Amino acid sequence: MSDQNSIQRVFLQGNLTAANITKALYPTNEFELTALDPGVYDLRVLFDLQTDYKVNLYVQTSNQSRIANNTAYYLSGGPSELDVKATFIARPRSAPMVMPSESPWESFINWISKFGQAFPVWVKLLYFALGIQFFAVGGLWIRRETTKRESGPQRLDFGDKAFLWLDIAYKFLLASLVAIVAIMGGELLILFILRFMFLVSLDLLSLWDLFVVGFAAGAVIFVYLIRFTCEKILDMKPVEHE
């Protein structure tokens, strides 16, 4: 391409049946060669103009909006010749990506890990600490009650033990909910005092905090409904030891 009508003649050698070239009346200021298949082409372009002119050589990839190379020449005037040996190669095809199939267990573990990222670290530590305390103490209590009732008529069967473990899980979730609400309530009170009394620029509780409270409350309600069903409908609550 030239900024003036300086292109006088063009000589092209190669597989012309697999190429598209611009057809224009010479002299002209533009010539374009497009190869449809891989191949080698010898291009010879003759320029001539009395005044100064510029010549630009553009190389584009298959994506026409992207120019891979641009070379510019300046000539003060007169005839000139540009010889180009153009080699066109096929664009490599990327192999299709085959995603490894996940097992249901791996998919579940992946979902749990992503779901756990929604909770703050202190909430995870709170659930962990209270869980160890409730289930460890509750397990010892159930074992002691089982041993105590072995010789009596009111033995603990599988249904009784399942209800007691469910009751421990309910109390654990309820205690966790109360602790989370208390901690967030204290945090909200401190932030309120700092923001409106000392004019400190701080954000109050976010939607993620409300999500944590809502999830904890939903877990308590869900386990309570199961416990209520087992106690009132299925009659799984063990008889109190006299």
Describe this structure in words.
With 242 residues, the protein is of the alpha+beta class. The protein has 2 domains: 82 residues, no CATH class; 129 residues, no CATH class. It is 44% helix and 20% strand. The chain has 4 helices and 7 strands; from the N terminus they run βββββββαααα. It has a 3-stranded antiparallel sheet with strand order 1-4-7, with no helix packed on it. A two-stranded antiparallel sheet has the order 2-3. A two-stranded antiparallel sheet has the order 5-6. A hairpin with a 6-residue loop joins strand 5 and strand 6.
In short:
The chain is built from 4 helices and 7 strands; from the N terminus they run βββββββαααα.
- Look at the structure and give the mean pLDDT: 80
Order of helices and strands: EEEEEEEHHHH
Secondary structure category: alpha+beta
User: Major sheet, described briefly?
Assistant: 3 strands, antiparallel
Uncertain runs are none
User: What radius of gyration results from the CA coordinates?
Assistant: 40 Å
Beta-strand content = 15-25%
The number of strands is 7
Strand order of the largest sheet: 1-4-7
What is the count of distinct domains?
A: 2
* Mass-distribution shape: elongated
Note the gap between the termini: 103 Å
What oligomeric arrangement do these chains adopt? single chain
Helix content: 40-55%
Treating each run of at least 4 consecutive H or I residues as one helix, how many helices?
4
